[in-house]
Design brief:
Blueprint (H helix, E strand, L loop, with lengths): L1 E10 L2 E7 L1 H6 L5 E5 L7 E4 L2 E3 L4 E7 L3 H6 L7 E2 L1 E6 L10 E7 L2 H14 L3 E8 L8 H7 L2 E6 L6 E2 L2 H10 L6 E5 L2 H11 L6 E4 L15 E4 L2 E4 H4 L2 E3 L5 H8 L3 H8 L5 H12 L1
Parallel strand pairs: 9-10, 9-13, 10-11, 11-12, 13-14
Antiparallel strand pairs: 1-2, 1-7, 2-6, 3-4, 3-8, 5-6, 14-17, 15-16
């Protein structure tokens, strides 16, 4: 069991957890993730390790309640426990001195981008962050990114905070201003990452994206997380999660991520579980 030490909402439906996991905290590197399961009957959910403290033996996760399990997770509080956490999984981010690095985070992507942005800054890069969301209420980790980046920008679709517009528009403005950009990391919704990759392509700016397809075991056995990158099939859980954005087939990725929309909707609808009723009946009559 993995005890939750702290749980706080950062924005509507977005919650930060600090969890006891000493072995993972000791081994984890930027860009890696875990797979957790709330209980015996819970589904396996992959989540990026946002931060860790080897000294305290803790890891930090940020979870957006969008599906059945993520909503259950966001209902948990400090003192509760998660049954299973496996990790660290996936390949770490490539951390080296690129020069000027722009880290783009869309929505929850800011949380996924944070550990790599932090590592890139510690490696000696000049870092610029661009964080975008639909509105002010959905902006997360603004202060945290400001602390580790040389320059930070906020964009909102509705103009309620920061610059009105999309992260792509701010990145284009930086390029147009003559800013020499040596590397871009883009993490967020698939359409956003695709747009960033297409924007940087004609300028030949190396661009990395972090993929989050449907994933089950996290060790390359189920094949559920396969994607097409550079005309080759990859398993995101073991070959990634980060890839060259200019080589990712975003269309097939979006299609695969829509595979279980109907099933997810059914899972979130209230229903009577006959098996659960039978188990409770047996317990009462025992």
């Amino acid at each position: 069991m993995y005890k939750i030490l702290s749980a706080e909402f950062l924005a509507p439906d977005i919650k930060r957890f600090i969890i006891e996991a000493p072995l993972i905290a000791k081994k984890r590197k930027a860009g890696q993730f875990i797979v957790l399961r709330i209980n015996d009957t819970g589904e396996r959910v992959p989540l990026t390790i946002v931060d860790s403290s080897p000294e305290k033996g803790t890891i930090t996760l940020i979870i957006q309640g969008v599906g059945k399990t993520s909503r259950k997770l966001n209902a948990m509080q400090a003192g509760d426990s998660i049954q299973d956490i496996v990790g660290p999984l996936g390949k770490p981010s490539e951390i080296k001195v690129f020069g000027t690095v722009v880290v783009v985070g869309g929505g929850l992507g800011a949380a996924v981008a944070f550990p790599t942005a932090k590592a890139l800054k510690e490696a000696g890069n000049h870092t610029i962050s661009i964080v975008g969301a639909r509105n002010k209420d959905l902006i997360i980790l603004e202060k945290e990114l400001e602390e580790i980046c040389d320059t930070s920008y906020i964009t909102t679709d509705d103009g309620s905070y920061g610059i009105k517009g999309f992260v792509t528009q701010k990145l284009q403005a930086l390029i147009d201003s003559g800013e020499k950009i040596d590397f871009v990391l883009a993490i967020g919704p698939i359409p956003m990452m695709r747009a960033i990759a297409e924007l940087t392509r004609p300028y030949h700016i190396p661009t990395t994206v972090s993929l989050n397809p449907i994933m089950v075991d996290g060790i390359g056995m189920c094949g559920g997380c396969r994607a097409e990158v550079g005309n080759k099939t990859v398993f995101v859980c073991v070959d990634g999660p980060e890839f060259d954005g200019h080589e990712v087939d975003f269309v097939s990725l979006m299609n695969r991520n829509r595979s279980y929309v109907a099933e997810e909707k059914i899972a979130q609808e209230p229903h009577d579980c006959l098996l659960e009723k039978k188990i409770n009946s047996l317990k009462e009559n025992a």
